[in-house]
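User: Predict the full complex structure for these chains.
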Amino acid sequence: MTLVLAQFPYAPEADPSAQVLSQLKVTARAWRQAVLADAKNEAVQGWLLRFKKQMPREFLLRDAFVIAEQAGGMFAFLKKKVFVAHTDVKKVGQELQKDSAVDKAWFDLSAEAEQKSQEKPDWWVSQTDAAQHQVRVVAAVREGERFVGTIVLSAQWQQDTQRPQMPWLLSWGLAALLVGVVLWLVRGPWGHLAPLVGIVAIAMYPYVWHVDSLQKAQQARMDRDTRLLSSLVSASSVVPKEWLTKVLPSAQAKSGFYTLKLQVGQSARLEAAKVLPLVTVPWLPSFWIALFAILLYAIYMVGWMGRLAQTIHDHIGAYLYVTPAMAGMVLLVFAPFSVGILLSFFRHTGGGNYLFVGLQNFRDILFSQLYPFPHPLNFYFTLLVTILWTVLNVGLHVILGLALALLLKNPLLRMKEVYRVLLILPWAIPNYITALIWKGMFHQQFGAINALLTSVGLEGVSWFSSASTAFTANLVTNTWLGFPFMMVVSLGALGSIPSDLYEAADVDGANRWQKFRYITLPLLKPALFPAIILGCIWTFNMFNIIYLVSGGEPGGATDILITEAYRWAFQRGERYGYAAAYSTIIFLILLVYSLTTNRLTRATEGVN
Amino acid sequence: MIGRICAKWLLLAVCFGWIGGAARIALAKPTELVMWHAYRAEERRALEAVVEQYHKTQQTIRVRLLSIPYDAYADKISAAIPRGHGPDLFIFAHDRIGDWAKNQILEPITFWVDGPLLSRFFPKTVQMLAYGNALYGLPLAYKSLAVFYNTSLVKVPPRTTAEMISLAKSLTDASKGRFGLAYEATNFYHHAAWLHGFGGQVFSGGKVALASDEGIKALGFARDLQDKHKLLPAEPTSQLISSLFNGGKVAMVLNGPWFRGEIETGVPYAVAPMPIVSETGKPAAPFLTSEAVLLSRRSKHKRLAFEVMKYLTSKASAMVRMTVGKQPVANQACYATPEAKADPILLAFRRQLDHTVPMENTPAMRVVWAPMLNALGKIFRGQGTAKEALDEATREVMSLLNTMK
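Assistant: Here is the predicted structure of the two-chain assembly.
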């Protein structure tokens, strides 16, 4: 996987190979004439020799040849291909060898040329390997509709040094540290900003590094272009004059093409960017950098680094015990999490390639033109469904759980243990099994629920046909799954309420409702509140039930945010970046939610 | 003394001979190729037998089979091969070829292929494996829908849809949970048979043609099966259909060759080709998928891997896959053998092959499924007209296609 940062105002398509390209254009035309005239291969060979001789010194010609095609076989794509000209004289006139991997590569290239020549101009850069400093240029020769053959030139150019700049890492790291320290000293409400700034700085590193080396490379290329241009002019004595006049103006324009190319348009630019590996950031370094940033954040959260070191030193045993768990957390939670956030700024262009798009994914989700509000795929619609889903579920869980807990507390009730076990059972069964059982029970023709309804004389309901009934089906299933937890929490808390409070209330003449309202509820609150907060977060992301019971039917109207994100990633054209942005938004919503509830709990605790 | 020297030399010679022999053995170590597949049960046994058989015919190549769960298969391929962790060869349906060819996951094999090799196969099944002007695989088997019917309920399979409807009507009694016909109605893969039977297409002239007049008629026809004729069980999932068929509760099922493995022993059944659509006189043509062995772009032994591909698709291998694995193999020569003639179900799929529409292997085709699932779902829930549903599906397909650019 590579991440492509393609937001640079220059056209990589026209990079160092520009020179070869312009020469090839001349040669390809002449070759084409020769191939078409079928001048016993000699003219074709002659052109090759001339081209070899006139190659600019900056370039080392590795291979150059013409492949021509013979008649097709049973299928159109089964054509025999023959070297008409080749830098290796032994190969001239030979059919491509079935056992040669090199020949196969040429054959495939020629097939690609045939394919591309239907839509593109007759030459293009097929491979630019910046690490190897190689460029390969391919030209398709066409006679009207008929594809005649392929001309391939591959050359190496002299190397520029474009090493990654270590000082950059250092300076950015130091700057981040400095800002962090200052902010930490200032402390106050902005104290949290310190690590964030550090993260941003470090996350920027690959981007900055590449911008820098790109600018340098660009400058170097411009210089070389002018150099090469002059060499071409002097070298082109063999090239017919009439071609020369055609080539030169466009070649001259190339020194300014970096701005010119901007007008080609988004798609052309993005596509071209893929050709050039220079702008690709290796995935792994970015990943490690992100991981490092998260670690740094963790360190900041604990406190000052020195203090941390001291603490570690003092409690080395405890830290050793915690290390396995921490390693697990980092590997299983923080790493995927940081990758997810990183991914939300990219667009998956297929085959594990990603293109940096900045905030576009978020813009598309939050201000979608494609799906206006009441559409089930609209973000706000889904958000509304999700909130409704969470509130109703948690409400029902609490009411049912509390009611059952109060019943089980009844001192006159016998066989309490049996009831308790029975009521906890729904919780003990894996929830996807429960979900599938309920899905079966909601089936229109064979489901238990409709059978029950019809036996009572009611009409069976087609549960998954309309949004409200499908939502109800989901709700019923999740309520079944969710109340035992609230019941267990309430039971525990009820047990801790001292009975003398109730006795005092009895003495004061309080009725049952008053006892519940003024004694039970306030004393349950410290236990119930965290459970409710947790329940909300669980329900908000309750993927299994939605996915397995209603499956988002009808038409995605019962999908919640998390299942929607899943569908964007795996069911609607592998839009991983978009889905990652969805998840990031979910995370932000939950973050805001837990921060506010935290504050609220603290406030209520203060009052109490 | 001389004897001892001689003995020493002899010992030395023996030692060298032994080392040399060992070195030769080490040098001649066969190349191992990894092949992924998602086969289970009979098909898996057949493939293993074929590989075993291949190992006996030569010493240079060893094929190591790795079975991958189907759900994660395609994603695993997309993820593993570009990183160099993938297999050399893998078996998959043709529908991802366009995607994978574009993303440099597949290696074109055009170079090695020649006319005689390709004439092994039914032309349709190979042509589907080409993308652009290159060939990406050799076909193992083809799959399409056909009519599975319970022979104790249906004596003569229907030849036209009118016959099918009247026959199914006589066998339907929803109150007793008996149905004349069942298929995954909301799945576009199944619905496409009607679409083609009515003369419609998914794409036509580079445009989405789902909402054509033919498309609307086909969708109306499918809706009538449920609403007017009331032949179908509600919300038909594949599990529901196989349990109904096994329980003798449904007379006819439209399903593919994989359904053979789901039918319990003791259920009397046979297979017939899809009926002719009475309205148009054309046969209902289901989608054809071609299951192929494909070559990874990152394989280190492409030439050798191609030899394996050739062997896997040869008659010797195809016969095992056909008889043991019950696959409708793509190798033509197999169908002339007595073994093939003894398997009427196989022959039914062979007859169906002539009336199928190859599913496109382009990335565009892969976008069609989700919107059409929505459209079909709406129609079977009785929401809106066929035209509205198809127009919306078309819009959605177009917008998904736009985001792919």
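Chain B touches chain A through 50 residues (CB under 8 Å).
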